[in-house]
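Researcher: Next entry in the queue.
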Amino acid sequence: MRSDIEIAQAAEMLPIEEVAEKLGLSRKEISLYGDYKAKIDLNKVKNLPDKKGKLILVTAISPTPAGEGKTTTSIGLGDGLARMGKNVVLALREPSLGPVFGVKGGAAGGGYSQVVPMEDINLHFTGDLHAIGAANNLLAALVDNHIYQGNQLNIDPRRITWKRCVDMNDRQLRFITDGLGGRVNGTPREDGFDITVASEIMAVFCLASDLKDLKERLAKIVFGYTYANEPVTVGQLGVQGALASLLKDAINPNLVQTLEHTPCLIHGGPFANIAHGCNSAVATKLALKLGDYVVTEAGFGADLGAEKFLDIKCRMNDLSPNAVVIVATIRALKHHGGVAKTELNNENVQALTEGLANLGRHIHNIKNNFKLPCVVALNSFPTDTEAERQTVYEYCKSMGVECALSEVFAKGGEGGLELAEKVLAVMEDETEINFTYDADLTVDEKIKAVCTKIYGAENVTFAKSAQTMLKTLKAAGYDRLPVCIAKTQYSFSDNANLLAAPTGFTMNVRELRLSAGVGFVVAVMGEIMTMPGLSKTPAALNIDIDEDGKITGLF
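Model: Structure for this entry, 555 residues:
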């Protein structure tokens, strides 16, 4: 079979104006970025009538090295619905360059279930991530300059929490010392870099409802503390207008298409093991105006992306999915059952049965904790056996949910018809999310609620630094914000080695980070890092370009 990039490069794309016409958008309402990409001008569509579409959230079991195919399934489901004559729009996240050149090599779907132009989407696209990085680093420069020029706000250089960022996996930049070389070069201090998609500006960008709201959220960002331990905000520095100016074009959603010409809005991309892992709220809400059905995704497993999508994004934006899809593969479930990656192609019903506990906990969370209708999508691989498939089907039946075989990688929209039919069958016209915690609980109470109800933890402990931060949050009036938990994506726990559905474990809150602009507190657990590193054999080693500009090796 041809590689993903070969399939994408062989596709005949529609001019993006024709894709826009499918959504009822005129040429005046979009800005072209070449022939096959465009931005939708929010100012020109702000008066669109509220044609409330139905929202489908695609999530997954806990990730494994075997892969689950959540984005591929989302695209195939959208194409499947389109083949059934439905007016459907996809709303997905933008890839980060770090993972593209690091561990993945591509993030626009796979096989015959892709969004195109694949190379553009995976690389610089329309420059949104660069704009977010520039805004992040402008704030960093302005903070250090304020201290250098006299420090009227009395900022403690040792308590600056704002890091610089770059959209690349670069462990060398995690911890640095800057401002060296004498007074003319600034104030020496410990500093560091995050990857751009872990920046608070990315998280703010993806939860803002419009440019005005974006600017207001930017003003609320706390970037450090004074010598008197008081938080200092962007609004006090007076630079929210400058930051928002860098994002004025980026906030307009990007329009592309699938291989089968289904419209797709790709916009924003915060990590789900660090931030909230969803595409932008403006893109999701615009898609709900433009389509009768909207397929969106949340990063990593349902314990991370879906929990944050529901408890944070939906709560802040008055959204509620009409159906949820949980993607699983037999290979990944066998890995949760203890099978090594090298043995996953061999039939092993016993290991599969043990690994199904992971799927079961995710089903329980969506169906019983959040009380939303759900369907399991069994993403097909050639090595799956009939005995293994029947094991999954019978397990899903015992859990009271439908399971559909998804063959979208090999067949595109045709392979998503069964899934589309079963999603439509369980879809409810109106749903009301049963949130994990009450809004008036304190930060520590909310963390405990997520850890015990969603992860299955028995206890939650707080390191001394986290306990100190709880006091700081309370003193500053931030102690009842929602919580965004940063932990490993590979386990329900904060230990990546505890697979399937562990019990009796303790979650350890290493530190708390205030994201006042976004409107939540990040609880950092385990060894999670906000700046990834490259592997021994990064994907960049396989990527090349010829003299005609044709890229190869991008997955």
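Model: The chain is about 35% helix and 20% strand.
Researcher: Noted, moving on.
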